[in-house]
Amino acid sequence: MSSVQSISARELHGVDLKQALIVDVRTPMEYSEKRLASPTALAPVTELDPHDTALRSGALEDTPILVLCRSGARAKTAAAKFAESGFTDVRVIEGGIIACQEEGFATVGEGQPKTAASSPSLDRQVRFVAGALTLFFTLLGLLVHPAFFLGALFVGVGQVFSGITNWCGMALLLMRAPWNQKGASCGLGKACSIDANKGASKGAGKSPGASCQ
Hints:
This protein is of the alpha/beta class. It has two domains: 5-108, Rhodanese-like domain (Oxidized Rhodanese, domain 1), CATH 3.40.250; 116-176. It has helices spanning 28-33, 50-57, 73-84, 96-102, 122-143, 149-165, 169-175; strands spanning 5-7, 21-24, 35-36, 41-42, 65-68, 90-93, 107-108.
């Protein structure tokens, strides 16, 4: 994985965002719920095609690429893909959209819907699945055969690895689930348009480096 630089949300205030491309690599559901009011391109990390995203957004190989996710972990994977594809100025926004919001950057979206049709956050889904698998394998180990304890051990090791590396394979798998693809009308892996009338702040200019939000 190529090394990429990072930028804090505070330092982002000093960047001319009209000349940069902000790429949001979260799921469409997360993007729909809350996103930056500034122009961004949605390109979920699991389906990310750097050249396609750049082409659809009008970005060149030397256009500053600022990669964003919820807290920064998925953005590192996506930023590495951009760097490996030849883009020369790629940076991860530290702390993701949470840090941006704390630094005063305006956000728009549907908030955190509480309807029965809404899906829980990706973090919550990972915790639920990991806990359920651990319980499942433990019960099988007690009731069927001790070898099933290895399954619980595997899940536990995976969670420790995720905590150390800040990379979670289970989260990447869950991102592909149908319920996490709701909320955006674009194809995955492609920068998509979000209707500016859905609450984008007035005066939010359209970046030449990011032709869609």
